[in-house]
């Protein structure tokens, strides 16, 4: 661990305090209007608005990563032995979800290219439903526009975070997750600290190998393994989960700088339209999947939504809609597409990437 990353100048400390305070104000405003996911959406919108006005916000990596460890650990607590058995029985649906997500990304890439005129490589990685950072890296290797890929994935995650919880809230969609009762157990401080220490240490170890979303996935897997084995040390207190959401919301909001909006407004508008179409198609697929499989369609729509792991799992947690299933589907899709998006590009390339004909002198 590099301890230098924790050192902050008085100016940076001031900006950090201001950023977190504004994020807290945003959360409180969302609580006043009974908005969904107030501790994530409120900070996201507040910090995005302030950041786009030209004010520099401060969110160090260690704070964002710490929030992700808390949230990943919280999600892992839902993987009881009973739920692990049920999830394993849906392995074929998990694989089908990965294939459908890849095909959805192909369609989105075609649509984005038709509307914006962006090259085929960039459009492919812009719309690939995987981790944003990983898709950006792979786009750079293939010769795509890194800045546009990063911007597209920022818009994708934020759009899904804002739309799905809001639609569910307006439609009064909620369920009853039998595992939600497990979250009502008492908090045991030694057990809680042990879980966080184990999850954090494992995350730092795995982070050396540059795996995707390591500070969410690793705590989730560690805690799920313990919970699945019947080991129950503690649950996460509600205030700590809120702090984790606050850090995540602030981190997402800080990406919306004035330069972000000025970079390519027409391209971002085309990305927005493409993503809305993809979101509608994914919701339709999720609904049909729910009807065929016998699972609550509200749960399957979250499980197949082209959003982020943490955001969709948190939505499922708040609405008591099969947290374990949503988490497994989102994690498996994200990890497999991160690994397979590059090789699968070879199938995509002959159809959409035209070879460059050298110009004769």
Describe the structure in your own words.
- This protein is an all-alpha fold.
- It has a single domain (11-352), classed as Na+/H+ antiporter like fold.
- The chain has helices at 10-32, 38-52, 61-76, 81-88, 91-116, 120-127, 132-142, 146-170, 189-207, 214-228, 238-253, 258-263, 265-293, 297-304, 309-319, 323-352.
- Helix 3 runs parallel beside helix 10, helix 5 (91-116) runs antiparallel to helix 13 (265-293) and helix 9 crosses helix 10.
- The longest helix has 30 residues, at 323-352.
- The N and C termini lie far apart (56 Å).
- Mean pLDDT is 81; it is low at 179-184 and 356-361.
Which CATH first-tier class would you pick? Mainly Alpha
Q: And the CATH topology?
A: Na+/H+ antiporter like fold
Calculate the mean pLDDT score and round it: 81
Largest sheet: none
Shape estimate = globular
Q: Unreliable segments (pLDDT under 50, ≥5 consecutive)? A: 179-184, 356-361
- Overall structural domain count: 1
Structure summary, number of beta strands: 0
Assigned CATH architecture: Up-down Bundle
Tell me the span between the first and last alpha carbons. 56 Å
Share of residues in helices: over 70%
Backbone structural class: mainly alpha
Cα Rg: 20 Å
Secondary structure elements and their pairing?
Layout: H1 10-32, H2 38-52, H3 61-76, H4 81-88, H5 91-116, H6 120-127, H7 132-142, H8 146-170, H9 189-207, H10 214-228, H11 238-253, H12 258-263, H13 265-293, H14 297-304, H15 309-319, H16 323-352
């Amino acid at each position: 661990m590099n301890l230098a990353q924790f050192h902050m100048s008085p100016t940076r400390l001031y900006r950090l305090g201001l950023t977190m305070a504004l994020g807290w104000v945003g959360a409180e405003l969302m609580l006043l209007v009974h908005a969904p996911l107030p501790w994530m959406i409120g900070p996201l919108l507040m910090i995005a608005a302030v950041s786009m006005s030209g004010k520099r916000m401060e969110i160090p990596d260690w704070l964002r990563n710490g929030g992700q460890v808390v949230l990943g650990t919280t999600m892992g607590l839902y993987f009881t032995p009973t739920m692990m058995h049920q999830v394993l029985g849906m392995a074929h649906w998990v694989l089908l979800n990965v294939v459908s997500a890849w095909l959805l990304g192909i369609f989105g890439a075609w649509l984005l290219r038709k509307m914006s005129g962006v090259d085929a490589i960039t459009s492919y990685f812009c719309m690939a439903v995987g981790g944003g950072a990983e898709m950006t890296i792979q786009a750079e290797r293939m010769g795509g526009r890194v800045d546009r890929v990063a911007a597209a994935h920022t818009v994708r995650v934020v759009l899904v975070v804002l739309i799905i919880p809001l639609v569910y809230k307006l439609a009064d969609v909620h369920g009853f997750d039998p595992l939600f009762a497990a979250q009502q157990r008492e908090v045991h401080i030694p057990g809680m600290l042990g879980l966080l220490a184990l999850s954090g240490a494992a995350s730092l170890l795995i982070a050396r190998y540059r795996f995707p979303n390591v500070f969410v996935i690793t705590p989730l897997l560690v805690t799920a393994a313990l919970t699945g084995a019947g080991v129950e040390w503690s649950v996460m207190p509600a205030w700590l989960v809120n702090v984790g959401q606050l850090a995540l919301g602030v981190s997402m909001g800080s990406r919306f700088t004035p330069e972000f909006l000025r970079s390519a407004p027409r391209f971002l508008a085309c990305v927005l339209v493409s993503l809305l179409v993809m979101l509608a198609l994914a919701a339709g697929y999720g609904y049909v999947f729910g009807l065929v499989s016998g699972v609550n369609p509200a749960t399957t729509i979250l499980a197949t939504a082209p959003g982020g792991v943490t955001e969709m799992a948190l939505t499922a947690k708040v609405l008591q809609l099969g947290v374990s299933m949503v988490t497994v589907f989102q994690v498996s899709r994200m990890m497999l597409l991160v690994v397979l998006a590059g090789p699968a590009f070879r199938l995509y390339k002959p159809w959409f990437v035209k070879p460059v004909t050298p110009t004769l002198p």
